[in-house]
From TrEMBL:
Residues 5-119 form the Response regulatory domain. PROSITE patterns: HTH_LYTTR (PS50930), RESPONSE_REGULATORY (PS50110). GO terms for molecular function: DNA binding; phosphorelay response regulator activity. This is LytTR family two component transcriptional regulator. Residues 151-258 form the HTH LytTR-type domain. Keywords: Phosphoprotein. The modification 4-aspartylphosphate is found at D59. The keyword Magnesium does not apply. InterPro entries: CheY-like_superfamily (IPR011006), LytR-like (IPR046947), LytTR_DNA-bd_dom (IPR007492), Sig_transdc_resp-reg_receiver (IPR001789). The keyword Phosphoprotein applies. It comes from Pedobacter alluvionis.
Length: 258
């Protein structure tokens, strides 16, 4: 088989680098032609470079929305391997439709399996791709019943149950993720921010930026900030400013108004 020209759509730089590294180790016939990080960026690049790629590795939740928004804007007839933290309940139908997925955290064996499945797929009669995305989007829309209601957290020499509703926000610092509760306690979490984002109810928690996931009940006020951004004030008071980027302001306002 000739070189597989591959695009990666992933907003977590660490995940993107790890994926590129593992692809280079186990699939020498893969050429990474572009790495994209947002819905907007991916929509623009994919629309203008249809003949430049054969395969897409794509995360489901990006910084500016769900990757399914890309397929609403442009027609993509190339196969996609989703790289996602969603559990099997959401992707069972997708897996049965002939394209594959890699569940985070992933390893070389998972990537090797997915690439080999693509090679078998491309060598057979090509199925319709777009209906698969539609089916998977519908499945993900039903994830509400699986949202985390509580966490069992290691604290000193104990395991402490903490209700999700009592967590004001999650934040990351020096590659460690913390939870701050509404009674101003702080705990170290055994999850990445992306894993937390996939497990939490999106009606309750909003990914303000790469550093913060905020519970709407913790928000006391929102101020206009420089360059079209918003400054979110919370209780308990955070030591670091919680800023909403200009690009995410419309999504944040919509979220707050629901």
């Amino acid at each position: 088989m000739s070189t597989i020209r591959t695009v990666i759509v992933e907003d977590e730089s660490v995940t993107a680098r790890n994926l590129i590294h593992l692809l280079g180790e186990i699939a020498h016939d893969i050429d990474i032609v572009s790495t994209l990080s947002t819905v907007e960026e991916a929509t623009t690049w994919l629309a203008g470079n249809e003949s430049m790629y054969d395969l897409i590795f794509m995360d489901i939740r990006l910084a500016d929305g769900l990757s399914f928004d890309i397929f609403k804007r442009i027609n993509i007839d190339k196969p996609v391997i989703f790289v996602t933290a969603y559990n099997d309940y959401a992707i069972t139908a997708f897996k049965n439709n002939g394209i594959d997925y890699i569940l985070k955290p992933f390893d070389g064996e998972e990537i090797d399996r997915a690439v080999n499945k693509y090679k078998r797929w491309i060598g057979s009669a090509t199925p319709q791709v777009l209906p698969v995305f539609t089916d998977l989007a519908a499945q993900i829309g039903n994830l509400s019943k699986s949202h985390k209601k509580s966490f069992l957290i290691h604290y000193r020499d104990k395991l402490i149950p903490v209700e999700t509703a009592k967590i004001s926000w999650f934040y990351t610092a020096n590659e460690i993720v913390y939870a701050r509760t509404n009674d101003d306690r702080q705990f170290v979490m055994d999850f990445t921010m992306e894993q937390l984002e996939q497990q939490l109810d999106p009606d309750t928690f909003f990914r303000a930026n790469r550093q913060f996931l905020i519970n709407r009940r913790a928000i006391t006020e929102v101020e206009f900030y420089f360059n079209g951004r918003l400054l979110v004030k919370v209780k308990p008071i955070a030591e670091t400013q919680m800023l909403i980027s200009k690009a995410r302001v419309p999504e944040f306002k919509k979220w707050m108004n629901t």
